[in-house]
Amino acid sequence: MKYISTRGGAPAQAFDDVLLNGLAPDGGLYVPETWPTFTDKEIASFKDLPYAELALRVIRPFVGGAIDDSALAGIIDGAYANFDAPDIAPMKEIGKNEFLLELFHGPTLAFKDMAMQFLGPVFDHVLKKRNQTVTIVGATSGDTGSAAIEACRDRDAIEIFILHPQGRVSDVQRRQMTTVLSDNVHNIAIDGTFDDCQALLKAMFNDAPFRDEMRLSAVNSINWARIMAQIVYYFWAAAKVGAPESHVSFAVPTGNFGNVFSGYAAKQMGLPIDQLVVGSNSNDILTRFFETGAMEKGEVQATISPSMDIQVSSNFERLLFDLTGRDGAVTRDILANFQSKGRFSVNDKTLEAAQALFYGARFDDDETKAVIKETFEKTGELVDPHTAIGIAAARAQHRDSSVPMIALATAHPAKFADAVFDATGVHVDLPAPLADLMEREERCQVMANDLAAVQDFIATNARQGAIA
Predict the structure, then answer these.
(1) Would you say the pTM of this structure is higher than 0.70?
(2) Contact 345, 263 (CB under 8 A)
(3) Annotated catalytic residue within 92, 112, 129, 369
(4) What is the Cα–Cα distance from 75 to 125, expressed in whole angstroms?
(5) How far apart are CA 162 and CA 192, in angstroms?
(6) Phi, psi (deg, nearest 5) at residue 186
(7) CB neighbourhood size of 331 (10 A)
(8) What pLDDT sits at residue 465?
């Protein structure tokens, strides 16, 4: 298995190189040169597999021999050993042919654990094999940071720096990052938005001398390994509702587009997906694109679903690459225009190709709270604001009631307890391992949105980044 850049200006790479590089040297994102596929018979055999075994089946083709099967199986088994649900990702029926896929049973209570608990040890494995270290730099709108820190803390081969937008994540999200006092963990609160954090991240990777000196790598969903590990739960959920004999649809609350792109990847691999519904909050740049074919940045609005407070969805580049016939030069030109003008549009043929699979729906804070309340009253389930948007999007765009629609539950309601309480009057306590979170000591550096200053902080504080 080889990987190519969405911008067409980088050599093809093997999985282990893609893992450590994160972003391609031409600024593009890595995607498989060809999609591995499963037959209907193979997909049918997934139904009764334990989650870890299914993960091995789905992930193995992408690794392409870079990690031997026994080591890969051990990494995967360990990754899902500390989830608090025996089947890792439980499914619940919440309406006629409507299901909720719970992805928040990992150690940081968010779907990011589904990939990050795999990513940390796979980094460790490859780095130890090469006798190397890396400096991981990540940007988070809330959940990626804590999941990455939990996965990478106390690993000798990894130094990790996480940027988050100051005051724009929930208290629980912030403290899950800033109360980890491990020597290899560094939190930076940026005076700006998530898009500012993400822009700083990309700028660091595009600064070749800095990237090489610090041995930068990424845990954001710009890293292909994140997408790869998330593909698994689409096959898992679809098999539970009868795939491949039955088609299936998914609704995904989406900010950076990585989660729903993983569903797109599953379809390319043979999973019979009819619809991928993108749920947006007031930051509805993706919904507007799927309606009009135009992507246009606006001001980031703070909402009760902060992980989706994004106007630049990095992973959309991977879809754009496929929509343009995998033409790296065209993709590069479109994105350069977007960066300079804040807008681009695609032609009718490209829009029609996108609309054949993708649908969008947007919900403001009041509508989101109403869905939280309605879901609790009708099903007894407490859901966080992001999950509520997924449920609402599923119901707004479900085109064929005979096809199961699965909404992704992306975070534990306790991570957004204030919003849940406002909607339902019910207070949700953090699970026991996090019960004292609000009393723990915090450690965080507040910084301006200044690339040079952030790079200097990283260079000064990385213990191992430049060690061979």
Answers:
(1) yes
(2) no
(3) 112
(4) 8
(5) 14
(6) -135, 125
(7) 24
(8) 41
DSSP bridge pairs for 30: 5
What is the count of structural domains for the chain?
1
Tell me which residue has tokens 């929930």: 170
CA distance 44 to 64: 23
In terms of residue numbers, what domain contains 259?
Answer: 91-107+225-424
Q: What is the SS3 assignment for 345? A: strand
Query: Is the torsion defined by CA of 147, 153, 158, 161 positive or negative?
Result: positive
310, part of any domain: yes
Q: Please give the mean pLDDT across all residues of the chain.
A: 95
CA–CA dist 153, 157 (Å, integer): 10
Specify the amino acid at residue 118: F
Q: CA 451 → CA 167, 190, 210, 261, 413, distances in Å?
A: 20, 11, 12, 29, 35
Q: Checking DSSP bridges between strand 445-447 and strand 185-190, what pairing results, if any?
A: parallel
Q: What is the mean pLDDT of residues 407-424?
A: 96
Written as six digits, the tokens of 288 are: 């507007």
Q: Has residue 165 been placed in a domain?
A: no
Axis crossing angle, helix 365-379 with helix 385-397, rounded to the nearest 10: 90
**Dist CA 423 CA 153 (whole Å):** 35
- Please name which of 229, 167, 205, 285 lies closest in space to residue 27, comparing C-alpha atoms: 205
How is residue 60 written in tokens? 């193995």
Close Cβ partners of 251 (under 8 Å, ≥ 6 residues apart): 277, 279, 390, 391, 393, 394, 397, 405, 406, 407, 408
**Rounded distance between C-alpha atoms, residue 168 and residue 466, angstroms:** 32
Percent of the chain with pLDDT over 90: 92
Q: How far apart are CA 363 and CA 393, in angstroms?
A: 8
Percent of the chain that is helix, strand, coil (3-state, to 5)? 45, 15, 35
What Å distances lie between residue 321 and 131, 204, 217, 335, 343, CA to CA? 34, 23, 22, 10, 17
Structure tokens at 460: 């000064």
pLDDT of 167: 93
Which CATH number goes with the domain that contains 253? Answer: 3.40.50.1100
Beta bridge partners of 138: 162
In-domain check, residue 130: no
**Is 264 in contact with 290 (CB distance < 8 Å)?**
no
Flag whether 6 is in a domain: no
415 in catalytic set: no
Residue 302 carries which DSSP code?
P
The set of residues, in sequence order, having a beta carbon less than 8 Å from that of 87 and lying 6+ positions away, is 50, 51
pLDDT of residue 466: 37
Kindly state the tokens that stand for 37: 């596929």
Q: Are 285 and 255 in contact (CB under 8 A)?
A: no
Is 426 within 8 Å of 316 (Cβ atoms)? no
On whether the CB atoms of residues 322 and 267 are closer than 8 A, the answer is no
Beta bridge partners of 447: 190
